[in-house]
Please model this.
Amino acid sequence: MSPKQLRAMRGHQVAMVFQDPMSSLNPIKTVGEQIAEGMKIHRGVSDKEALRQAANMLEMVGIPGGRVSEYPHQFSGGMKQRVIIAIALACNPDLLIADEPTTALDVTIQAQVLKLIKELREKSPMIMLMITHALGIVAEVCDFVGIMYAGRIVECGTLADIFDNLRHPYTRGLFDSLPDIENRRAELKPIPGLIPDPMNLPPGCAFHPRCSYAKPECSRDLPQVRWLSDTHYVSCHLYNETVENML
Model:
């Protein structure tokens, strides 16, 4: 796409909520100006109308519209993240990409932001892509889940497929690394080894140096996608032959 085509798409068809609200807002512009910017570019509305709609967007994310003329430093961390969400939703995008949207927030504010995201999803036909390492957030927000390792999806399925019927050794390692709140004496089972350098990945399956199920072909050949059901697939040599090999 040309730079002009990319500018026409960003904020209009595709919008993004970034990880750190503290560094995502311009400190010398009011939040109203920052919400209104996309509306003026993509909708061609006047400055006055854009600010009016910006105030409505603030109301939609739970912030009084009268604060449209205030600056980012006058908002708490959770409110800044709500402003970022308002900016992303200002032009009704088809796709919203949320990159670790709650990482920089405390637990209470995280819950509020996640509740807001869920409510907005229910009111809008927009599709959301959530990027996160927190499996609890995945369980609360997502319908479909893709597990990635070293830049590749190694397992994908519905929420039930991944949480109740996981298959890839890496997915198993992720869940085994979680603390068991019902058994305080249970030890964590961390995945051995270290994540490989993405610029120098090992041959074959990138996970094979850390995998207790690795076979000779794992260090030689890239595994192919194997569909386990209409909604669930895995990329692993354990499933090359029959379903009897499943973990």
